[in-house]
Amino acid sequence: MTDNNLWFTEQCEHGGSAxxxxxxxxxxxxxxxxxxxxxxxxxxxxxxxxxDGLFMxxxxxxxxxxxMMSHPALFMHPSPERVVIIGGGDCGTLRExxxxxxxxxxxxxxxxxxxxxxxEEFFPELCIANDDPRAAFLFGDGIKWMKExxxxxxxxxxxxxxDPVGPAEGLFTEDFYRDCHRALGSDGLLVQQSESxxxxxxxxxxxxKAMRSAGFADVRTLFFPQPCYPSGWWSATMxxxxxxxxxxREQDALRKRFDTQYYNAAMHKAAFTAPEFFSxxxx
Length: 283
Ligand code: SAM
Description:
Blueprint: E1 2-3, E2 7-12, E3 17-31, E4 36-42, E5 47-51, E6 54-58, H1 62-74, E7 82-87, H2 92-97, E8 105-110, H3 113-122, E9 135-139, H4 142-147, E10 154-160, H5 174-183, E11 184-193, H6 201-213, E12 218-225, E13 233-240, H7 250-254, H8 265-271, H9 276-281
Parallel strand pairs: 7-8, 7-10, 8-9, 10-11
Antiparallel strand pairs: 1-2, 2-3, 3-4, 4-5, 5-6, 11-13, 12-13
Helix pairs in contact: 5-6
The protein binds S-adenosylmethionine (SAM).
């Protein structure tokens, strides 16, 4: 919602809240086969992408989300070579994944090619790894891809999708998690953006339940700030085919040779520390 062309504000009915940024210019708008994509220039947050009128990312603070969707899982797998990103069309998660030298293949399965083309134009800083020879792009439905995936051939699946409505709805189901479980190798990890811990406890509970029913041995949620998303506080839920205890390659994280703005070894451990209401609310 734009107000006198001065502010873009997203109202969250479910949470009874709203978040807005001051905008300078509406740069682009298009209706793709899947969704409405808008790009704005803002006063203080750099460029902004919205999908179907909802904040997707801003240049200023997307690092929080992209780093926390990637590095915790990558540093918890003993040898993260083959990574599949479902969604992630803005390519920010792909950029973070490819900072890890152990990764040999990173496939991004994004249903809407226009998201990636617009990211290349308006968020080139997120697309700097797109020419990496390890990167591969498939524009299609991640649900279909996972159903047809070769068993045991993936080390980490990252589901960087929009909210569980429309094309993304099927990415939050036991059937999809079962397909992920089959596609993953024995040390495999699945990590999925799991919305706001403050506003979406019911969804997070259903994700935990469905991941366990799909056969994952261990399911944990991690938390991080994300100002432009409802409540300003976000989560990712990680599922392991084996127990996640003792999986953190802390020394490797401490010695990491690539730059981050939020993630580090201490933040990794803090992110998995559940607030009291969350522990009590987890069924
Ligand atoms: N950071 C954002 C968030 O947390 O809301 C998500 C970033 S990314 C732009 C989300 C992407 O998921 C979109 O580009 C959308 O097209 C994609 N997507 C939604 N459903 C999908 C599906 N079934 N298969 C593949 N990509 C999908």
